[in-house]
Amino acid sequence: MVVPRPALLENTGDAPFTLLPGARIIVAGPGADAVGRLLRAELATDCRRELAVVHEPPGFGDIAIVIADDEGPAGHPEEGYTLEASAEGVRIGAATAAGAFRGVQTLRQLVPAECEGDPLTVDAVRIADFPRFAYRGAMLDVARHFFPVADVKRFIDAIALLKVNHLHLHLTDDQGWRIEIASWPELTRIGGSTGSDGSPGGFYTADDYQELVAYAAERHITVVPEVDMPGHTNAALASYPELNADGVAPALYTGSKVGFSSLRTGDPVTDGFVRDVVRELAALTPGPYLHIGGDECLSTPEADFQTFVRRAAELVAETGKLPVGWHEMGRTPGLPEGTIGQYWSFRTPREDAAEQTLAFVRGGGAVIMSPADVAYLDIVYEDGDPIGQDWADGPTDLRSAYEWDPARIVPGLGDAHLLGVEAPLWTETVPTIEDAERMVFPRLAAIAEIGWSPAPADTAEIASVRDFDDFASRVAQLAEHWDALGTAYRRAAGVPWPEDATR
Asked: Is this prediction's pTM over 0.70?
């Protein structure tokens, strides 16, 4: 019925809720107005129903959103909510606006996708729901192929329906620099002028970026910006000759190789560059995290890598942000306390990935789990797919994306050590937002459920407690909403898709 699966959902067997003419959205409590206005806009888009948002006692057939300290499931105040639907009306209760917004996303899925006609009914249910992890993310690589503001907003709307609460924007790479840095304007003028396969490029002005941050925040999604360093930096090196040891800027790069570029370590010009980039990006970002990459630095000597990463993380910490980096950064001693690691190896860790990841926890930080063979959304669904990559042990079908658990990847890392999960989409082969959506959906639904729904028992087999057939049936119902909203998706194997689903 709902994705992600709620912690508790009971069908009461009572008469259903029917949305009658004259129904209102009743709001009470701090932040309820904004949540109510979003619900009104979503019902207008989804169902062509216009409801007034008012501060009045609820009447028969109204939808009430109540935010108060004593609302929501006990002991789960941040994003928890309760939802009750009956013939008398719908009531969403939460201790925070974020919790109320998550409840609204559940209500949207309970409302029939084909809801323009009368009557619009919702089964009588009682829900008490809250997330397993505080961090549930999706990453959009806008460096390889650039996605304009309208496309990113469309992506935000789509991930919000799945209760994803962090959007990681991969803003820089060898193929493009996508964020305006006022003190280094050539980064976007030159470095932002192209992309993978010679695509036209583009970049976000400071105003564009803040518009995206605000749009996401209205939907209780935190933007996590990433400037990848010291590798993946050809776009920066091509923009400023002085960042290069020989004073000569390399050509812009539009291919797909990795590991060939590197910023210098111990160079005062480079140090000033990193300081300025971090300072300006932190000032534009209200969220707590700033990601500095640190992956695939194959052209950076090990001692230089550790010195560079430690310095960059210190500069992030000086701005008051928590540094985040890919798990390779964990081989660097002396990172600021609380630095977050993002694991991108496999369900069976390769080489030193497990030990590097554990180092973040030993340093007082936490870990975001993004195992490439199940969580990377750019990996093909099936052999022969025209878009996508296959380096992560081949295709990742929907069942594989669903039947894993983040607390069973790195020995010694349990729920208490994990900030959460994230599903990255790298876009070397993904040129349009429709292509991106077909790679992301439905597999992001699987990652979102892993991040939100209750943890399986420690001794249970994942395949036995994650009922794929049940999940697939709920995804099929979700597809009706994607169709109504115009969200593209892949008709992945194993799902009983609606006959008229064509996306």
From this structure: yes
